[in-house]
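Each field is listed here:
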Amino acid sequence: MNKEEKMSKAILTIDDGPTSQTVKIIDWLFERGVQPIMFFPGTDFEKNYEAGIHALRQGAIVGNHSLSHRHFSELPFEEGIEEIEAQEKNLERLYKDSNVKRTKKLFRFPYGDKGGKNAEAFQKFLEAEGFEKGRDGSGERDWLWTFDFEEYKMQWNEGWTFEMSRKKIFEKTFNEISPRVLLIHDHPQSNKFEEGYFFKLIEAALESGVEFERPF
């Protein structure tokens, strides 16, 4: 493997599903041989439960993104633990109903907010509960990303455009950590600003030379 090939390695992670477009996303990715990690919060979990089952059966890895997707630095420690544990129960049920064996426990803090003054305590909890270390180089037990498309900013109506997200992948070098951990969101509402935003951004990543690896 030469240096250029190594720099292009990446793992695809998708936040905030399952949604009404999850099935389409999953089928499209697996047609291209891309296995994603999807971090599900509990917010729309029941509404799109069958889409979550489909994702697992197709081969996606589903991780915990907390029950209600709140900032952990704003929660008492005990409430943060409840957020994780409640969503764990949801995921265990999802895996069981999908007839897919769960071999990895993964967690991502909403907004990348690791808990402020309770950050160390949350890490100890995640380690004690057997959550896998992330791939951002920190050695911590949550999955922080190393590259964010930031396409969700289109919804904020503060001047961020789809083209800004698309250009990011061509402007970034991949020489800090390999494989990089790419973050994109499963947000149907973003299609109002750029129809097919998800597929266009992943195509741009592939065009730029990114090669998506299987996470494990």
Observations:
- Confidence is low (pLDDT under 50) at residues 1-7.
- The first strand starts at residue 9 and ends at 15.
